[in-house]
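User: Sequence recovery, please. Input:
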């Protein structure tokens, strides 16, 4: 990752300053909140692995709700043709400050407004589906934006994690009641937390196949259950080793002790057809 490092300026709009604060924790090495940083690093690693698993450089990727553009810029540097999208259109200016190389197109505004002429080899949906009142409709929109045979990489908090308390989407009789609070950024904007079976059901409804599902970020890695202080005393290699250990546990345990989910989905090339070759 070579993206240009920037320094905060007093003249920046508030949204740029907030983005810079996240960049400090996510890519610039600020370790004030190690649990957040370690969990982000885990999520980032799984996202990039899943992208590379099925899409070759040159593939056209849409990065939805891309915020400060760290995935956008990294994937562009890796040789992908990336479209940055976010409701906060002014963030495109901040992302451009960090641009180093590669092909990036900036399309601000609602992803729901993208027309049928927009079609991608892959859509990246990082930590957004839990912010929408109608995740079923949202996933159908993402499927529409993917070419036949294309892929979706989706990350979201794991609803089955022992520390999570928000309701399941399937337990809500009237999701419309949340429409006025959807699309808020950061964890304060979480509406539902999806469980594995719900994701599988939503994928089927959207005409998608689930190719792979990964659980990641155990309580130590995330700094949860009062382990944040311990992280400041624990060597990084120990944290990473413990993460590998918990990800090797039986699935039933993994579903309870990991805070995050990374999912690889595919829109079949032909109705009823399974996985195809990488793009």
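Assistant: Recovered sequence (279 residues):
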């Amino acid at each position: 990752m070579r993206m240009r490092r920037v320094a905060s300026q007093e003249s920046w709009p508030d949204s740029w300053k907030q983005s810079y604060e996240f960049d400090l924790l996510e890519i610039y090495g600020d370790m004030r909140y190690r649990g957040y940083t370690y969990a982000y690093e885990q999520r980032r690693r799984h996202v990039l692995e899943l992208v590379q698993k099925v899409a070759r450089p040159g593939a056209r990727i849409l990065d939805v709700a891309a915020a400060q553009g760290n995935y956008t810029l990294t994937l562009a540097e890796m040789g992908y043709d990336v479209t940055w999208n976010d409701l906060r259109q002014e963030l495109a200016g901040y992302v451009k400050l960090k641009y180093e190389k590669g092909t990036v197109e900036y399309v601000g505004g609602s992803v729901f407004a993208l027309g049928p002429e927009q079609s991608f080899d892959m859509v990246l949906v990082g930590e957004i589906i839990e912010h929408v009142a109608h995740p079923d409709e949202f996933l159908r929109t993402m499927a529409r934006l993917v070419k036949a045979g294309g892929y979706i990489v989706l990350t979201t908090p794991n609803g089955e994690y022992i520390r999570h308390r928000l309701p399941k989407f399937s337990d809500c009789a009237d999701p419309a009641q949340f429409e006025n609070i959807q699309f808020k950024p950061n964890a304060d904007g979480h509406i539902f937390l999806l469980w594995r079976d719900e994701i599988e059901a939503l994928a089927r409804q959207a005409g998608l196949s689930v190719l792979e599902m990964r659980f990641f970020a155990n309580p130590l890695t995330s700094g949860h259950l009062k382990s944040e202080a311990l992280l400041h005393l624990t060597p990084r290699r120990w944290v990473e080793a413990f993460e590998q250990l918990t990800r090797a546990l039986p699935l039933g345990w993994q579903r309870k002790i990991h805070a995050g989910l990374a999912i690889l989905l595919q829109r079949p090339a032909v109705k009823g057809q399974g996985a195809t070759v990488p793009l």
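The chain has a mean pLDDT of 92.
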